[in-house]
Design brief:
37% of the residues lie in helices and 15% in strands. By secondary structure, the chain is α/β, with parallel strands linked by helices. The relative contact order is 0.14.
């Protein structure tokens, strides 16, 4: 990106010579909010794990199914933590297609993701981007911008989709999730999806991809199914529990690929009572 013109949405402090995890993920999804430096990093990762774009798309499909299921349960508020760039069928598009009054707060700490999000959401009064760090849940919950975006006294959905694998063990992800869940009123929901090398059938590929991400500012920590299930604490899981992402309430049997049981990631939804 040396010598390239800086886009108007990119803050001056953003280094356009370094890949952004949010933009790389957008590239995996087939989006357009990425640069050559992001695509170059993605190409290196894809050499180790060529199915990663498909995995990202399966994760996004899970997100869409979970949001639709929660809207059907009467949830009209969503807090998407570590949201990245809200493109390619994200929460506001899915929820507001079913309920135009649904309110969404996208939360991220990455200035690149925040800048993109503000541009994308301009003109949508019910979808807001909030600067915040999910690793500091108490501070985040006290953030006035979050309270202005959603009514935290009413049931809402906490979305931790494809983000907790960027939270190392030292930051105590189980405690983070517990703090967030404890803050939510009864009738709220918790949604988690998480990368895993457990039963992936490709442990060497997953390990190489993990090592590549660990060279960036967003190190990666894959967890097995038992560890991912533990993130829900004692909350009541809705059917079908913690399963590989493609197996969580597929729209039809035809949507489930033959290798779905080797998918390198798990997901689940729990009700907060």
């Amino acid at each position: 990106m040396e010598g390239a013109e800086r886009p108007v949405w990119a803050p001056d402090e953003v280094d356009l010579t370094k890949p952004s995890v949010a933009r790389v993920y957008d590239y995996y999804l087939g989006g357009s909010h990425n640069f050559a430096v992001d695509r170059a990093f993605a190409a290196t990762v894809l050499e180790a794990m060529p199915d990663l774009p498909r995995h990202a798309q399966e994760n996004r499909a899970f997100l869409r199914r979970a949001v639709r299921a929660l809207v059907a349960e009467g949830i009209d508020q969503f807090v998407d933590l570590g949201s990245g760039i809200p493109t390619v069928g994200n929460v506001h598009e899915v929820a507001q297609a079913l309920n135009p009054d649904a309110r969404i707060a996208y939360v991220d700490w990455d200035p690149v993701a925040l800048a993109h999000s503000r541009a994308i959401l301009a003109g949508n009064p019910n979808a807001t981007v909030v600067a915040g760090d999910l690793r500091k849940p108490a501070e985040l919950l006290a953030e006035p911008a979050l309270a202005a975006a959603v009514d935290l006294a009413r049931p809402f959905a906490i979305l931790l989709v494809s983000v907790l694998h960027f939270v190392p063990d030292d930051d105590k992800p189980e405690e983070i999730v517990a703090t967030l869940a404890d803050s939510a009123p009864p009738g709220s929901y918790l949604v988690i999806s998480h990368a895993s090398n457990d039963r992936s059938g490709q442990p060497d590929q997953a390990g190489k991809a993990e090592a590549l991400y660990n060279r960036t500012t967003s190190p990666f920590r894959m967890r097995d199914r038992t560890e991912i299930a533990a993130l829900f604490g004692g909350l009541e899981l809705v059917e079908p529990g913690v399963v590989q992402m493609p197996l969580w309430r597929p729209d039809s049997p035809e949507d489930v690929a033959p290798d779905a049981t080797t998918y390198p990631g798990f997901a689940g939804v729990a009700r907060i009572s």
